[in-house]
TrEMBL record, chains A, B, C:
It is an enzyme of class 2 (transferase). This is Aspartate carbamoyltransferase. Residues 147-289 form the Aspartate/ornithine carbamoyltransferase Asp/Orn-binding domain. It comes from Bacillus chungangensis. The keyword Transferase applies. Gene3D superfamilies: Aspartate/ornithine carbamoyltransferase. Keywords: Pyrimidine biosynthesis, Transferase.
């Protein structure tokens, strides 16, 4: 049995195997578990992309998905997360994908579960399937991470992908830089990459990964209006013109249009934003295959 | 690729083809897409009939249905309808059925989507799959629309089927008449059919289509109590007795029992109300087949 | 057509047939309806275990499950339970599982429905699939009910399984005893079994079935704190030590840990609590097979 909790738990070889499997799936490869399998997606926070992506990935692998809605479950009677997951294990579910607003929610679960757990995003912690689809999208574009300039721009502190992406990109040989509001930058991040102003970033980066301003997670930067944020830290149409030839734009979505990225650029030629969503399915098929094969 | 947005977009030949397909499905015919297909049903307004009918129709065609709940989606984080539908397109969904409270919600979507869209009801606009099942139920009963007297009774102004049903019935050769509260009748409707009092209607109509009073959509006619409405505009037991031999009662449901129609008549011999629901599945199979075949 | 509403409706022979079928399913036996079948699970009260258990049971039998959420259905427009279930019948659903907070909700339904109904729990009335899985778990453990001492401990009055379990256990030859707060005990229960203090119960019972304190159903016993309840009526670690060799602990779950049962005992060697959940799937497969075979 093997959980999928953070990318930090994985060796570079394991990550490359996952990317290779995702690549095979993107080219139409098929894989099915030997026996009928059941999955449950326990999403304690809103999600369109990640949830539907897991749903499709599961079905493409022939896995049956058991529906679950928190607000109609026994959680409303005070049942704990642990007892809820144990219940799904007992009824015969073979894998649980969980998104939860508590950092490291999985720590109290993993020791007592017999079924694999996939982290679908924990608080401000990790979001390893998103990280993996980001890596896959970059590899698909450039073939390799070696010496690639990858900029991570925006709300680094609250993002569940920024720091783990930076760390794994560095391990893979990329050159990481950060940008965005300085109050969301910590000196501890310097070991992964340096801080640059957005105007420098756009001229040097091969990949500009913008992060979503998570209005739903923090309220303290209300000081800056959306227009001001866009002008100071966002990808304006003017800045896009100064980007390197063949460089690409990424964003985990949903994009706050005209905040992180100008509306017109969301579906522009450089944008890989919807390609990322597409790749998410292949990456999640690879993750499910991995945890169900062990 | 072909959307299914309003019946007005379709020629009489296309409508007859759909009715013919629905008829085949009602007799047990089978049709499956060449490859595995995925559907999503995005319902922004409550629904039991239309949603479950599409769900069953999709499954009968072997289509996998990806669940979606607005209140657990990224729409709660401010994501737009457009970005939501684009996301489902990106994860690999092949067709989206959408019900939305905004008239013509699909106009901002269709130009930029690559997957077909099915209108599951837009505000006070259209509800083409309901219209089609109404037509199918009439055809099933009478074999033809030629010279048939069809009455549409009730809240014509707010109904998403009244006006488009009237228009298409006229194109098909039927004779349309309207009844119900005059404040919900506009002189513009006269080009489709004349206005008659309910007591005249019941004696002349072959088909009495009652419309639901949509308490959830308008509040201005609270002047009339339910009992008063029933007595003045509804199908009372007394009026039913005066209906023509072989004439039928229809209603899109849910019926406000003892308002539009007397409780005892909802499942009476003349009533085709549950037959309409049954037919809805066959009609939606025909619609799905159409949009997935193009 | 055959409904599954209460265990009282069934003969001992029918109950034993169901237990035998459940036993076959627990050993990997397969059964599929001759044709494709559709189910709907209408849960008007929160549920994790019962709902997911039916979901899995349905899928293991190859039955397609049509999703339903009350708060997105036409029930929000005032549609009745009857019209809702009739609608599912009309769209082609073959079996409906219903949980509802109204005792005997099914009485107004059964006469006019053509599809079988399974009671997934009605108010403080019955919960026959839970009762059956309790019986199955006991039979699995002891092989027979004859002369077995079965204690039912806790909130007997509000429980939907206590009284019907007691009645059927007696019919099966077991010796039933009750314990818990006396204000939740009625002299009418004495015909099924006698009342004993918990300290006596633990020393005599082969099976200790604890009932959940349903905070969501009644508020009048707030007089007792959770700690006090646990000390006076619950299974403390000290009491467990005095239990008979080979006796078992049962609970329908969710357990209020440290109220009905000490936290440490929930997954102890004597506990069959997660085994009960596991057995629930097999029992529900047997029930579905029964109602779909008639």
């Amino acid at each position: 049995m093997s959980n999928f909790l953070t990318l930090n738990d994985l060796t570079i070889i394991e990550i490359k195997e996952l990317l290779q499997d995702a690549n095979q799936f993107s080219k139409g490869a098929q894989w099915f578990p030997a026996e009928k399998r059941y999955a449950v997606n326990l999403f304690f926070e809103p999600s369109t992309r990640t949830k539907s992506s897991f749903e499709i990935a599961e079905r493409k692998l022939g896995i049956e998905v058991i529906p679950f809605e928190i607000d109609k479950s026994s959680l409303t009677k005070g049942e704990s997360l642990y007892d809820t997951v144990k219940t799904f294990e007992a009824v015969g579910v073979d894998v649980a994908v969980i998104r939860h607003d508590q950092d490291g929610f999985y720590q109290e679960l993993v020791d007592n579960l017999e079924i694999p757990l996939i982290n679908g995003g924990d608080g401000c912690g990790h979001h390893p399937s998103q990280s993996l689809l980001d890596l896959f999208t970059i590899e698909q574009e450039f073939g390799s991470f070696e010496n690639l300039n990858v900029a991570i721009v925006g709300d680094i502190m609250h993002s569940r992908v920024a720091r783990s992406n930076a760390e794994v990109l560095k391990r893979l040989g990329a050159n990481v830089m950060f940008s965005g509001p300085k109050e969301w930058f910590r000196t501890s991040y310097l070991q992964a990459g340096e801080y640059l102003e957005i105007d420098e970033v756009v001229e040097h980066a091969d990949v500009c990964m913008f992060l979503r301003i998570q209005h739903e997670r923090h309220h303290e930067t209300a000081a800056l209006s959306k227009e001001e944020y866009h002008q100071r830290y966002g990808l304006t149409e003017e800045r896009e013109k100064r980007m390197k030839k063949d460089s690409i734009i990424m964003h985990p979505a949903p994009v706050n249009r005209n905040v992180e990225i100008a509306d017109k650029l969301v579906e522009c030629k450089r944008s890989r934003i919807f390609q990322q969503i597409k790749n998410g399915v292949f990456v999640r098929m690879a993750i499910l295959k991995r945890v169900l094969s062990h």
